[in-house]
Amino acid sequence: MLNRRSIVTLLVSAPALATPALSQSQSFPSRPVRIIAPYPPGGGIDTVARLIAGPMSEVLGQSVVVENRAGAGGSIGAAAAAQAQPDGHTLLLDALGHVINPLLIRDLSFDYARAFAPVSLVVSQPIIVVGNPNLPMRSLAQLLERLKQPGADFSYGSSGNGTGPHIAAESLLRQAGVRATHVPYRGAAPALQDVMSGNLAFAVVTAGSTVALAREGKVIPLGILSPERMASLPDVPTANEGAVPGFIFQEWNGLFVPAGTPEGAVTRLHQAAQHAVNQQAVRDRLATLGAVPVGSSPGAFASFLSAQRETIARTVAAAGITGS
Predict the structure, then answer these.
(1) The pairing of beta strand 64-68 with beta strand 292-293
(2) Per-residue pLDDT averaged across 200-225, rounded?
(3) Is the peptide bond before 165 cis (omega within 30 degrees of 0)?
(4) Is the model's pLDDT at 152 over the cut of 60?
(5) Measured between alpha carbons, how far is 13 from 242 in angstroms, rounded to an integer?
(6) pLDDT on residue 25
(7) Is it the case that residue 196 has pLDDT exceeding 80?
(8) What is the pLDDT of residues 269-302, one digit of tens each?
(9) Signed CA dihedral, 215, 219, 222, 227: sign only
């Protein structure tokens, strides 16, 4: 039981105990914040990072800049973020590669699960299959039927070995009972360029990187791997609508900080991310890309990651995907 002296002592000491956390929250950030996008400019991650940077700076009171550090399925940029000072001034906007890379890349210089603390699941992103306009296929069902024909030898591109789109593509092809040769790229943009030039038959990429190209007729949108059609491409059916019944696979983008970042900084960063995805202009732009805003709490994102690690590990093993 607390006596009167104990209560007085608690009341007197409580402000002193709260002061460091309060001071920390008020003093952060003290300089510009950078978001490392571990894929090249023009792709889905880069688009989302630049879309949320401005609104996040409104909450943080400092500029938020995007730095592209591409390569090795996103692990180069992730390594740079993992090695940054854990003070909240460096963020990583990552995707499914955050969960996939530890399963496929040997001798990583860091442990994804231990090196980062989750801040917020920012958006979920549809994955789309797009084809070369000069080929006769105009739907995913037609593409898969063509792949079943004797002698069919098509190559497809993705944003890199072991990325979300690659895992999605191999899972799709396996479930459909067909094969195609995978050509990994350093991001979606160069893969799409080779689809447009005719060097690839098709590509499997995040929707945000290809909606504008599809609308312009530079690539043919064949099918969406999400559970629902995209508002920005309403005439493009999902895989589940007939091509591969029951097949669903989605990409996501989430913000991380180096492990050990103060809780007050994580809270401010989550508030900034949530503010960004709640802006109508941001939501409208995300809708044109087919992305769904989320803005979850750090705790909810941590639970989501735990489930993703378990699910993706099973998918990679079943599809027989190997890394380097």
Answers:
(1) unpaired
(2) 94
(3) no
(4) yes
(5) 66
(6) 53
(7) yes
(8) 999 999 999 999 999 999 887 788 999 999 999 9
(9) negative
What does the alpha-carbon distance between residue 35 and residue 67 come to, in Å, rounded to a whole number? 6
CA end-to-end distance (rounded Å), the chain: 61
Q: Could you tell me the two tokens for 121?
A: 């699941």
DSSP states of 157-184 as a string? EESSTTSHHHHHHHHHHHHHT---EEEE
Flag whether pLDDT at 8 surpasses 60: no
Show the DSSP H helices in the chain as ranges.
Answer: 4-27, 44-60, 75-82, 97-104, 112-115, 140-147, 164-176, 188-197, 211-215, 263-277, 280-289, 298-319
For residue 128, the SS3 value is: strand
Query: Which amino acid makes up residue 7?
Result: I
d(CA 127, CA 170) in angstroms, rounded, equals: 13
Buried (b) or exposed (e) across 49-79, using 16+ Cβ within 10 A? bbbbbebbbebbebebebebbbebbbbebbb
* pTM, entire model: 0.75
Is the pLDDT score of 180 beyond 90? Answer: yes
For the residues of 280-298, what is the DSSP string, one character each? HHHHHHHHHHT-EE----H
What's the rounded Cα separation, in Å, for the pair 134 and 156? 15
Q: What is the mean pLDDT of residues 107-135?
A: 96
Give φ, ψ of 258 to 5 degrees.
Answer: -60, 140
Q: Which residue has the higher pLDDT, 11 or 277?
A: 277
